[in-house]
Every structure is written in structure tokens, then in C-alpha cells.
Amino acid sequence: MTAEFGWSYLAFSLAASLRGIERGLAAPLMGLLVDRLGPRKLIFAGAFVAGMGFIMLSRTDSLIMFYGASIVLSLGFSASANVVLTTAVAHWFHRRVSLAMGLMTTGFGMGGLLLPVVMWLINHYEWRTTLLLLGIGTWIIIPLLALVIRHKPEHYGYLPDGDLIPVLKNAESDTNIREFDAKQALKTRTFWLLSLSFSIRFMGVGAVILHVMPYLTSVGLASGSAVLVATFIPLLSIVGRLGFGWLGDVFAKRYVLALTAALQTTGLLAFYYAPSLWALVTFLITFGLGYGGAIALRPAIQREYFGRSAFGSIQGTSVAVLTIGGIIGPAFAGWVFDVRASYQLAWLALAIVTAVAIPLIMAIELPRNHRQVSSSA
Asked: What are phi and psi of 321, to 5 degrees?
């Protein structure tokens, strides 16, 4: 698209920033709606809007239209992805919530494995037809999957983890979990440390995801090899989501989360030295594992510290905060390239910034002020 329309990398990156702004603004609303309506209705509506966004992108003929279509696409996925899906999982799991989140979020990573398919479609049918096909696929596949989604286990005679309600009348159950509403969570130091640490980390994540292929081709890596590297990021993130999701159920989640931040920092530093083979291998292993592990652990920590009665509202507010980093990172990397004709300074700066998340995560502690609510809340 940049080649066809002559857009700068900064102008192209601003679309990702606009999507981030929309996600940040929509996330609290989606969190509130999923708490009240459940996930299925939102996923149906989101699928329709996202499909429209893809089709609008396929008809793009100006930068303004590109930005508008990007916002529509983002709105659709705001209603059918992150906040909505993590809330559904949080209601059904407690004891193994980290692993459950890891399993659920592997879907996002597996979607990235379709990048070679998308590249093949673009090479054979050009980008407009490819986007049209993605839109039609969204209209067909996501509503079908939404049919199997359920809201709260109590509606079907269960407690979280599949426990039966009658069995737990005189036993320890989810009633002992600390429960916060969104207003109470916002007053805690824990909420802000967790959200700020992820906002910082999303600067690097957003920049890498958007600029990985332009960066690698700019330093002389063949486009086929660049696609391979871009494909391995989500592949290794799946390993991170599952592996660190399991570790989060065994060890203290904040220590495991801090480890993922250290790995992500290492990965960004290694990315600075691309296209060296050792640097790319180090980048893929450390960044992919660290990025993927954090995706699974963040909602699991929120579930552990704030409960599930208002999980969607709290999650939506937190996503609004962390999205700020996702807005800044891609635009910053695009600006650096436009000014210096090189991405190296961006990766170094983002690695330093990401390292700041480690002490923030270590300062997270269980909130003191809490209330007890029934497990059916």
C-alpha cells in the first residue's frame, strides 16, 4: 500500500495508532457490556463490523479512507476479541486460570501463523482481493465459533473450574476470592502498576509487530526470510502463552511476569543487531516467549487480585491504559525510520523503556481493600 500510494512509514504507522486509540476508548465500554450482556452477542456484532472494516480497506483509495476503515476494523475486533474473550475465560476458571488464559490466547498467536497465507494471497491476487476475502471469512467463521461461547458457569449449574454448586455448599469455593468492582480497582496501586507496566511493554510489542518486515528488508534480509521471521514471532509466542501460563499456576504470577519482561527486553536488544543470524535467533526466542507469556499472565493476575464479578469492566479499563503504549510505539518507530532511514535507535530506546516495566511488576502486591461477594455474582 505504501508503494502504491507513496505514503511514508509514519503515515502508515498512524493507522495502527488510530486503531490503538479506538481500542483504548472502546475497551471500557466493551468491558461493561460483556459484564452485562455476556460475550456471545458482542462477538456476533463485532464480527459483522470487522468484516465491514476489511471490505472498506479493500476499497481504499486515500489516506483518510484508510484511516477510517482501520478504525471500523478495530471497533469490530474490540467487540469480539481481547476484553470479551478473556472475560469469558475468567468466569469459568480459577485454580488453573493462567493456563486457561494461555490456551485461549494461543488463538491470537495462531492467527499470526496465517501470515504466509496472506502473503501468498497478496502475491497472487493483490492486496485488495486479499482484504475482501478476509472480510468474507470474518463474516462466516467468527459467528459460527461464537455459538459455542458461554457466559457464566452458574447459568449452567457450575462454579468455576467445573465444580458443581451443590458439592461446594460446605466447602471452600470461589466465594473466598477477593472481588472488586471497577471503581474499587481503580483506587488500588496494584491496578495502576499492572496497567502501566503493560503500557510500557506494548510500546515495543506494537512497534515490532508493525515494523518487523520493513525493518528486516531495510537491513538487507530477503523478503522471504523476513516473512519467516515474522511468522516465528507468533509461533514462539504460543509456546510462551502455554509455558508461562502453566508456570503462573505453579509459582507467584508477578515473578513469572517479571521474567517475561526481562525476556522481551533481551529480545529488543538482540533485534538491534539484525540481520545477524545469532541476533535473529535470540530475538525470536526471547521476544516471542516473553511477549506471549505476558499475554496469558496479565488477565490471570487480574483475576487473582480483583476477582471476576466485574472482570470485564476492570479489564476494559486496564486495556485502555495499556493501549497508550501500543499507540506510541509504532508511531515512534516509524518516525525514527523516516528521520534516520534506520530503525536501530528505535529498538535500543524501546528496550530501555521495556526494562522499566520489571521493577513496576515486582512492586505489584495483593490489594488490601476488598470485599467478599457470592460466587454467583
From this structure: -75, -50
Could you identify the residue written with the cell 541476533?
279
- Find where cell 468466569 sits: 91
Name the DSSP class of 276. Answer: -
Other beta carbons less than 10 A from residue 294's beta carbon:
28
The whole-angstrom separation of Cα 196 and Cα 202 is: 10
- Set of cell numbers at residue 289: 516467549
Amino acid 284: pLDDT: 94
Find out whether 134 and 122 touch, Cβ atoms under 8 Å: no
On whether residue 370 sits in a domain, the answer given is: no
Any domain includes 121: yes
Gyration radius of the chain over CA positions: 21
- Provide the 8-state DSSP code for 161: G
User: Domain with 302 in it: what CATH number?
Assistant: 1.20.1250.20
- Whole-number Å distance between alpha carbons of 199 and 268: 16
User: Is the Cβ–Cβ distance between 175 and 374 less than 8 Å?
Assistant: yes
Whether residue 376 is contained in a domain is answered as: no
pTM as predicted: 0.79
**Which grid coordinates belong to 148?**
459455542
User: Where in the sequence is the domain holding 322, given as residue range(s)?
Assistant: 6-362
Q: How many C-beta neighbours within 10 Å does residue 184 have?
A: 18
Has residue 274 got a pLDDT over 50?
yes
- Whether pLDDT at 4 is above 90: no
* Sign, Cα dihedral of 260, 263, 267, 269: positive
Alpha-carbon distance of 357 to 196, in angstroms, equals 8
Tens of pLDDT along 195-244? 999 999 999 998 998 899 889 998 888 888 888 898 889 889 999 999 99
Determine, yes or no, domain membership for 375. Answer: no
Mean pLDDT throughout 254-278?
94
Q: How far apart are CA 307 and CA 333, in angstroms?
A: 37
Q: Residue type for 64, please?
A: I
Total domains, the chain: 1
- Residue-wise pLDDT for 280-321, tens only, equals 999 999 999 999 999 999 999 999 899 888 899 998 899 888
